[in-house]
Amino acid sequence: MEVVNHPEPVATPGHVLVEIAVAGVNFMDIGVRQGMAWTETANPKVLGVEGAGHVLALGEGVTEFSAGDRVAWVYAPGSYAERISIPATALVKIPDYIDDQTAASLMMQGLTASHFATDFYPVRPGDTALVHAAAGGVGLLLTQIIKLRGGRVIGRVSSRDKVEIAKQAGADAVVVDTEGDFAEEVLRLTDGKGVDVVYDGSGPGTFKGSLDALRRSDTFCWYGPVLGGPGSLDIMSLPKSIKIGYAVFSDNIQTPELLRARTQQLFDWIQDGALRVNIGGSYPLTVAARAHADMASRRTTGKLLLIP
User: Fold this and answer.
1) What is the CA radius of gyration of the chain?
2) At residue 224, does pLDDT exceed 90?
3) DSSP the chain
4) Conformational region of residue 298, where left means phi above 0, alpha means psi within -120 to 50, and beta covers everything else
5) Which of 3, 30, 223, 240 could form a disulfide with 247 if both were Cys (CB 3.0 to 4.6 A apart)?
6) pLDDT: is 53 or 223 the higher one?
7) Distance from C-alpha of 264 to C-alpha of 93, rounded to nearest angstrom
8) Sign of the C-alpha dihedral computed for residues 15, 18, 23 and 24 taken in this order
9) Which one has a higher pLDDT value, 170 or 248?
10) Nearest to residue 191, comparing CAs of 213, 207, 221, 209?
11) Does the pLDDT at position 4 exceed 90?
12) Are 220 and 244 in contact (CB under 8 A)?
């Protein structure tokens, strides 16, 4: 990774010029570096898709924002920068009671977790969910939202030092596993019945265990393309009746109205004390590669941020 000086961005029609205060780090960014996405964009390309900052200027046709507004955004490629021109439709205003770092932390991962637990599989009171990477950015927020909806959470983490972090987020039980050998313990914790829903973004190594841990006729939520899919799947070979689905983050933000409504729900939960963000580390923008290495090696928990 290298730091490159690009021409100063301008607020083109329908766009807003923003001074970036903080950018979020996501596995997607690592995938771009590895050549798994954005392959049509020539190098050097600016990574990052989310962040928070304040409005510097408005492009033609933008009326819902003003210079000086604090804003956050989701999926605006090129967010590892000092300034960026962003489509107004990708922006939300940040309330006074939310700081920039919290706002940036809630965009990709908070909206993803909200989509998973309220839309893709609407968790019902009494449901039991298995949450992989329960001490990660998505996992910690997902655990809290499941608990808000009356569910029970069995979290899976990669090391014992992450157990307490997952429990503080509300996990009722935590399984430590690095080899994909967790299903037997999950079945024990559910009296042999299995869980109502599995949220698995941990890659192909956990696919079979997630199937084994799932209750008959219930839901497998698969996500996280950067870590790879399960490979060829003969659906006729599945051992029981289940529903497998691939959860796509972008389905949660199809319109500006939906984006802002979903984000406002997250902000409201923060204000009410029902949801909290775990920021696992803040790095200078110039050492983004170190943040990526820490995330890829699972050395961190919670959300990682970059400060220009």
Assistant:
1) 20
2) no
3) ------PPP---TTEEEEEEEEEE--HHHHHHHTTSS-TTSPSS------EEEEEEEE-TT--S--TT-EEEESS-S--SSSEEEEEGGGEEEPPTTS-HHHHHHHTHHHHHHHHIIIIIS---TT-EEEESSTTBHHHHHHHHHHHHTT-EEEEEESSGGGHHHHHHTT-SEEEE-SSS--HHHHHHHTTTS-EEEEEE-S-GGGHHHHHHHEEEEEEEEE--GGG-------GGG-SS--EEEE--GGGGGSSHHHHHHHHHHHHHHHHHTS----EEEEEEGGGHHHHHHHHHTT---BEEEEE-
4) left
5) 223
6) 53
7) 9
8) negative
9) 170
10) 213
11) no
12) yes
Q: What's the predicted TM-score (pTM) here?
A: 0.91
> Which residue bears the tokens 């922006």?
91
Domains and CATH numbers, the chain: 15-108+253-307 (3.90.180.10), 125-246 (3.40.50.720)
Cβ–Cβ under 8 Å, residues 132 and 199? yes
More confident residue, 265 or 6: 265
Q: Is 94 a residue whose pLDDT tops 80?
A: yes
